[in-house]
Amino acid sequence: MDSVTPPLSLSTTRAVLRAIGLLVLTLILFLPVLLLWALTLERLRAKLVRIYYNAARRISGVRVKVVGQVSPLRPLMLVANHSSYLDIFVLGSILPISFTPKLEIRSWPVIGFFCVLADCVFIERRPADMQRAQAEMSARLSNGKVLALFPEGTTGDGYHIMPFKSGFLNLVEAHDLPLQSVSIAYTHIGKVPLSPANREQVAWVGEASFVTHFARLLKFPYVEVIAEFYAVERISNHEDRKALAKTCEITITEGLHKTLEANGVVG
């Protein structure tokens, strides 16, 4: 007999208070981050952006448990599964990091400029744009930064992992970079484990409106997520970047499913 998914607890008052909190947080930190960005005070800017991610995550009701250790090696490339804009808050609150959003986000009102202040590299998987994107990513890595890639190329449902694309892993070859995989497992909304019936309340997939999706998410009491960091990989231990990408895909898929199933999340 199929199990029945319990109803989710929703509160409009909670969502409004959280939205006000996020607005106030953004207003407080925007000018300092903008000033540090303009003065190219990179270390302070990165520290303040991480504070923003951490505070925004907490205000949004996202509870993170970290398993494993973030590699101390720099520069470093992180690869992770991707199911939600919350992934940015989750990883960005754990360590200073440069993300790689889609180029179209650069033109989004407000959010696009915030991404610039957060030192993002906008990417588009067209051959004509690859050279520009790789040059910007190389510049970040040359400065000893951590660069995050979501090699599925889009968001998934949080349970099923799509094949990893290996295109940008040529930077790992070019810089002999350490590469660390991390799985991001959303397990609960409040006390309710995620399931096929409620998974898309957290995963941002398809044509769902960002504003509508985020406004609903703010109504939940909290969302639990487990971020697990795995052993560092080296390109020299693999035949090529495609083999490295496949290893990362297997590591993340197996780790993700192990975590989800241990927390009562079904596929």
Mean pLDDT: 92
- How would you describe the shape? globular
Relative helix content: 40-55%
Number of strands: 6
Q: Helical region count?
A: 8
Q: Label the structural class.
A: alpha/beta
Task: Catalogue the unreliable spans.
Answer: none
Quaternary structure classification? single chain
Question: What's the SSE pattern?
Answer: HHEEHHHEHEEHEH
Percent of residues in β-strands: 5-15%
What would you report as the Rg, rounded to the nearest angstrom? 18 Å
- Which sheet architecture does the biggest sheet show? 6 strands, mixed
Distance between the termini: 16 Å
Write a structural description:
The protein is α/β, with parallel strands linked by helices. Helix content is 42%, strand content 15%. It contains 8 helices and 6 strands. It has helices spanning 12-38, 42-59, 86-94, 111-117, 127-142, 170-175, 210-217, 241-262, and strands at residues 62-67, 76-80, 146-149, 179-189, 192-193, 223-233. Strands 1, 2, 3, 4, 5 and 6 form a 6-stranded mixed sheet that branches. β4 and β5 (192-193) form a beta hairpin. α1 packs antiparallel against α2 and α2 (42-59) packs across α3. It is globular and about 50 Å long. The model has no long low-confidence stretch (mean pLDDT 92).
